[in-house]
Amino acid sequence: MLDPDAPSTLIARMGEAARGAAATLAISSDARRAAALARAADALRAARARILDANAVDVARADAAGLAPAMLDRLRLDDARVEGIAAAVAAVAALHDPLGQVIDTATRPNGLVLSRVRVPIGVIGIVYESRPNVTADAAALCVRAGNAAILRGGTEAIESNRAIHAAFTDGLVAAGLPAEAVQLVPTTDRAAVGAMLAADAHIDLIIPRGGKSLVARVQAEARVPVLAHLDGINHVYVDASADADMARAIVLDAKMRRTGICGAMETLLIDRDFARPPMLVAALQQAGCEVRGDQALRALVPGTAAAEPADWDTEYLDAICSVALVGGVDEALAHVARHGSGHTDAIVASNPRVAEHFLARCDSAIVLWNASTQFADGGEFGLGAEIGIATGRLHARGPVALEGLTTYKWIGRGSGQVRG
User: Fold this and answer.
1) pTM assigned to the model
2) What is the C-alpha separation between 340 and 329, in angstroms, rounded?
3) How far apart (Å, rounded) are the C-alpha atoms in residues 39 and 30?
4) Helix, strand, coil percent content, the chain, rounded in steps of 5
5) 148: Cβ–Cβ under 8 A, 6 or more apart, which residues?
6) Is the pLDDT of residue 1 over 60?
7) Which long-range contacts (CB under 8 A, 24 or more apart) does 187-192 make?
8) In angstroms, rounded to a whole number, what is the distance separating the alpha carbons of residues 324 and 237?
9) What is the Cα–Cα distance from 223 to 136, expressed in whole angstroms?
10) Distance, CA of 318 to CA of 206 (rounded, Å)
11) What is the model's pLDDT at position 136?
């Protein structure tokens, strides 16, 4: 006899409800889904006080438990961040509907007309940590693309996630869409994650958003296809041709604007022929960043802490940066290929030939020229909210927004053709 309280039973029950809601969403109109998100944004604003009260409980617990400062920053909400969450949902409502888009059409010699048309994936499971805004972002993107969502947030954000989910659901129901279109796993039992990963009969795609250990577990255990968001071990390479003032501004923003996000620079690579490496190091240090340098940098900037081998492979998510001197763009590219995570890497250069060489050869999901790595964000790309930065090579790559949450089907229109 099945245990009605077992995580596997819970996820199966939620999956069945989600499958029914996904069928409703798939045939719902663009106007209905957009209206639901607009109402959800209004409901989030109306629930601001409840959301902040719930978040205060989470932050107090996490602080008492010794959660790292960068993770606390991800967890903490204030009036501006709640408004940002609501605004992101409203922005998704205003995006162009991807469903029904004809990707391409071909007429075969026998007259059969074949088209590839965008359709929802179905039921998407999202497993995430710390950041309560993911609850609304993921829900909005899934619904807008016609998918049902099963959300499993981190234990540290449980009260915040519940308050955000409740408000979001109010908006869905007010617009006539099923509440089951977005479900939040109610338990903090880690076994619920395992149940989601095994629920290939109920969930069509799993998206993990969190630290390396979470993503590794999902990839190792999942029987459901996974769209992975891995570490942000991001690099900025300052070429010899770089404008010094521009380099300083980009390096400071890439590292220090927000240190706890996946788009933050973790390693700075400086061409040995760049005129002012000490200036870049000093700028970081004056901004409160701990700099760990290789031997060549330490010889140039005495007193700099020594970088250990592990530093080049570390996503600090903190005010720490590893810095190395390199012998030109190809040596920088080799370092990125050896130590990077395929997330976001940038070059600062005035020489367009060098810059284009870097853009072509750097095999990361996002590659930037003369811009901060902190632009690695769906909103900054004009995609609205994002569900993550995909670092793999299949299905979707970079900021995953509406199009990345769809698949396609073939539609054939004939006039009596038979193969015979």
Assistant:
1) 0.83
2) 15
3) 14
4) 45, 20, 35
5) 18, 19, 21, 22, 25, 122, 123, 124, 142, 180, 181, 182, 183
6) no
7) 187/7, 187/10, 188/155, 188/158, 189/7, 191/7, 192/7, 192/10, 192/11, 192/152
8) 10
9) 26
10) 28
11) 96
How is residue 381 written in tokens? 């790309």
Q: Give the start-end residues of each E strand in 89-239.
A: 102-107, 113-120, 123-128, 148-152, 182-184, 205-209, 234-238
Higher pLDDT, 366 or 394: 366
Assigned token pair, 80: 């501006």
Strand partners, 348: 238
Q: How far is CA 381 from the centre of its chain?
A: 13
Confidence at residue 3, expressed as pLDDT on a 0 to 100 scale: 59
| Residue of 316, 299, 302, 326 whose CA lies nearest to 238 | 326
Other CB atoms within 10 Å distance of the CB of residue 150 = 27
Query: Cα dist. 315→7, 141, 272 in Å?
Result: 32, 27, 24
The Cα–Cα gap between 149 and 95 comes to 19
Which residues contact residue 286 at a Cβ distance below 8 angstroms, ignoring those fewer than 6 apart? none
SS3 state of residue 389: strand
**Lateral strand order in the sheet of 123-128:** 182-184, 148-152, 123-128, 205-209
Distance CA 139, CA 150 (A): 9
pLDDT tens figures, 280-330 = 999 999 999 999 999 999 999 999 999 999 999 999 989 999 999 999 999
Domains of the chain: 7-227+400-413 (3.40.605.10), 234-375 (3.40.309.10)
Q: Judging by DSSP bridges, how do beta strands 234-238 and 344-348 pair with one another? A: parallel
- CA–CA separation, 169 and 392 (whole Å): 32
Sign of CA dihedral 157, 162, 167, 172: positive
Distance CA 165, CA 385 (A): 16
- Tokens of residue 272, six digits: 């040995």
